[in-house]
Amino acid sequence: MSANSKTLSLMASGSAMYTRKVSVSKDPDFLKVVDKLRNADVSFMNFEGQIGHPDAYPIKPYSFASYFFGEKWIAKEYAWTGFNLTSLANNHMNDWSHHAIEESIKQLDEAGIVYAGAGMNLTAAREPGYLDTPNGRVALISIDSSHEQGEFVQPPMASDPKGKFKGRPGNNTIRYDVIIDAKKETIDQLKKIRKDLNLDKFRGREKDKDKHLFFPNGGNPGLTFRESNEPGFTTISYQKDVDANIKWIKNAKEMADYVIVSHHTHANGNKKTGPYAEVPADFVKKFAHDAIDAGADICLFHGMHGKGIEIYKDKPIFYDLGWFSWMVETLPRFPYDLYDNWELDPYNSLPIDITNARPAGQFGVSPLWNQGFLFDFKMKEGKAIDIKLHPMHMGRDKPMWERGLPRIAKGKIAEEILTRQVEMSKELGTEIIIENDIGVVKL
Ligand SMILES: [Zn+2]
User: Fold this and answer.
1) 139 domain-assigned
2) Is 400 domain-assigned?
3) Does some domain include residue 233?
4) What is the chain's mean pLDDT, rounded?
5) What is the largest distance, in Å, between two alpha-carbon atoms of the chain?
6) pLDDT by residue (tens digit) across 171-217?
7) Which of 127, 178, 202, 203 has the fewest CB atoms within 10 Å of its CB?
8) Residue 327 Cα to ligand 1 middle (Å)
9) What is the domain range of residue 281?
């Protein structure tokens, strides 16, 4: 009997940010989450952060987001929760210097959690992680494309050694361009403005100066204006980054029963919606299909709050796993930069001042940041045979130090969380029925 004829059970959840010991919890609705994770062959999360190291220093000079770190025992807390597989490629994997990448990998190894997506050089970051289970061998490839549109922070992408030069520690990244399609008259006007303002003196990407008409800072995603009869917005990935990952998918397919591709992205919007709408970005959708065509069995995206499910050639694509845990409010300390960027006096302010400076709508008490899912599914003979969604809430009505812990949602909250997924999945041709606080995908 080949391994593929066995039934492989999986639980997938999105971004995880523990800052507290969860193994002491007696909350019955959290323990239900733990029970489900411990009982699956594969329990996947996105390790959205790093494990701190005394020599680590903050990397990003302009960030408003948390410079996230966990204590050394955090990896064991994730293992206790039931996770055995994690992606590392995400925007928080470069909050701190390479010391924290090294420390994260070391602690995950000790905790027995298989990982992929970040490393001391690009090849190490791209290499799959392999998880052996009684019901099949699983390969994980983990990718990041979570740099913001127009953000002046370089994607934390790793590089490889060349000759006497070392490689750069970081992520397995897929870079992408944000394209604004405009009619010829508009492009001509933009060119005129650029000339009048002497903007063409700014050096853009050397090879492609004309492409970056208005945000020419070399290397940033910026905006690309393109002549087209159909004005609109789209995103296109760097084909060389996609090709490199496709090669690893093909390699992994030869060495495991199932290939999971994880992809952390903050890219939103398509031609119909314009930027920032929480729908799969055009390049994301294309990548998911290309990955499956190359041999991937499961695509797990994360980075936002859930964007629906698509079944493509019998393989499941979860366009956003949402959050698993969100304990950013109990980070015990923040670096100088975060005080500085929030216009707080770095020398006289305290961590609670950062929490209070943040817009409440974005963090802490905002509903979307306090919802999560467990995607509960099975694979047999290469196909998804059963997909369920368990909605979770993070206890936003509780005090700060109890928030961010995922709990199985019931009743009205469950329905609210699931309804959004039902509607988003419908757009992708997938029907989900809500039954007893659970979403069931019609296959
Ligand atoms: Zn992220």
Assistant:
1) yes
2) yes
3) no
4) 90
5) 72
6) 999 988 888 899 999 989 988 888 888 876 665 555 555 565 555 44
7) 203
8) 14
9) 7-172+242-441
